[in-house]
Write a structure and sequence with these properties.
17 helices, globular, alpha+beta, Pyrimidine Nucleoside Phosphorylase, Chain A, domain 2, Transferase, Pyrimidine Nucleoside Phosphorylase, Chain A, domain 3, binds uracil, 3 domains, about 425 residues, 4-stranded antiparallel beta sheet, Aldehyde Oxidoreductase, domain 3
Length: about 425
């Protein structure tokens, strides 16, 4: 078999048998197929797409490239949760602890910030002393004893994705349904949980542009999960506006703690509860996450998890030395807040990494003061920038001012959860 032959087949719109996909992936992993041939194939996939059978073969080959975690030492149904990435998306810090407080076992492997989207590992690491590097024994023990652990993926899990993702990132081949679906689901399958709740985001701050493409991606991922014997449910959620009131690592941990204490943004709490309820449903646990929120047991579970991972929450979360307001350029009702622009402003401040070797600034970020639907006046604060220097804070103000779109008319916050996808199909929210 020749790489050239395989690449040409996809270029011409053909379908690969599973062996061709394995040949390409294994050859690439072993250094026999160079980056330029793999990149040519990835671009052909972006343009031509893949059949369901091809996506399944790619996912299986990716899983086989590394180890699969054995979670059989944890009793009960283990439920994982994954978001395709957003701005201000701290749902993992709220929904899974609520589900764990209801009795669901939650072994979760998370990622770092990617492009303008935030990463759960970076958020958790803003807690002094906390580690996300748990070896498999410690990870499994913590899920057994505490009910929840959120850790970094070890290099042994789906090594093919690490290589492919880095190549996709620099060859404009990220936004492809089969490539995203196989990347996410290979990692979820290798992470070993029995069931998976996916939060598939669309809109300005997400990788999927619209609800239809998010439903397609959700459907592919659900079928891949179910095909691998994992019960899988996906929620399709809007990411046009940042989620909740903060964007930034320590800021989002604090917002999650506040939300778990009953002082959360309505939309954020709603999404976290929907996720937690799906996790309970998959685990066949009858308790209601709403009760775990009201009683504070979800917050206790989250604190227990932080402490088990070495977090010294009593030392307080890091705070940026500079706080500067972003004044509104006009009067009106906030119609939208461009999540991409807010995410990019966060990236400038150090919430994520512009280059691989960059360090994140755990205290940096943006606190939203004027939410969608609020009425603002000229000069009123739209947000507060938290930064390590005044110069840096001032540099993002014009971008943030332009992110707020005002309307002369009253505005209602748009619905957030738009659809639910399971093996039987798509159900749209009313
Ligand atoms: N997240 C992933 O893990 N993979 C993708 O391809 C996109 C988002």
């Amino acid at each position: 078999m020749q790489a050239l032959e395989v690449i040409s087949r996809k270029r011409d719109g053909g379908e690969h048998p599973a062996e061709e996909i394995e040949f390409l992936l294994n050859g690439y992993l072993r250094g026999l197929i160079p980056d330029y041939q793999m990149a040519a194939w990835l671009m052909a996939v972006c343009i031509r797409g893949m059949t369901r059978a091809e996506t399944l073969a790619l996912t299986q080959a990716m899983v086989k490239s590394g180890e699969v975690l054995d979670l059989s030492g944890i009793p009960g149904v283990k439920v994982d949760k994954h978001s395709t990435g957003g701005v201000g998306d701290k749902v993992t810090l709220i929904g899974p602890p609520l589900a764990a407080a209801c009795g669901v076992k939650v072994p979760k492997l998370s990622g770092r910030a990617l492009a303008h989207t935030g990463g759960t590992l970076d958020k958790l690491e803003s807690v002094p002393g906390l580690t996300v590097d748990l070896d498999p024994d410690r990870f499994i023990r913590q899920v057994r004893e505490v009910g929840i652990a959120v850790a970094a993926q070890s290099p042994q899990i789906v090594p093919a994705d690490k290589l492919l993702y880095a190549l996709r990132d620099v060859t404009a081949t990220v936004p492809s349904v089969p490539l995203i679906a196989s990347s996410v689901m290979s990692k979820k399958i290798a992470a070993g949980a029995d069931a998976i709740v996916l939060d598939v985001k669309f809109g300005r701050g997400a990788f999927m542009p619209d609800v239809a493409s998010a439903e397609d991606l959700a459907t592919e991922m659900v079928l891949l999960g179910e095909g691998a014997g994992r019960r899988t449910v996906a929620l399709v959620t809007a990411m046009d506006n940042p989620l909740g009131r903060t964007v930034g690592n320590a800021l989002e941990v604090q917002e999650a703690l506040d939300a778990l204490a009953g002082m959360g943004d309505e939309e954020l709490v709603q999404v976290a509860l929907v996720v937690a309820r799906e996790m309970c449903w998959l685990a066949e646990v009858e308790a209601d996450p709403g009760d775990a929120l009201r009683s504070g047991s979800g917050r206790n579970k989250f604190l227990q998890m932080l402490i088990a991972q070495g977090g010294k929450i009593e030392m307080g979360l890091p705070r940026a030395p500079v706080h500067i307001e972003v004044p509104s350029l006009g009067d009106g009702h906030v119609q939208s807040i461009d999540a991409l622009e807010v995410g990019l402003a966060g990236l400038e401040l150090g919430v994520g990494r512009k280059k691989k070797q960059d360090q994140v600034d755990p205290a940096a970020g943006i606190v939203i003061e004027a939410q969608v639907g609020d009425r603002v006046q000229l000069g009123q604060s739209l947000a507060v920038v938290h930064a390590r220097s005044e110069e840096l804070a001032r540099s993002v103000i014009p971008r943030l001012q332009n992110a707020w779109k005002l309307s002369a008319n009253e505005v209602k916050r748009p619905p957030h959860v738009l659809a639910r996808v399971d093996k039987d199909g798509v159900t749209r929210a009313d």
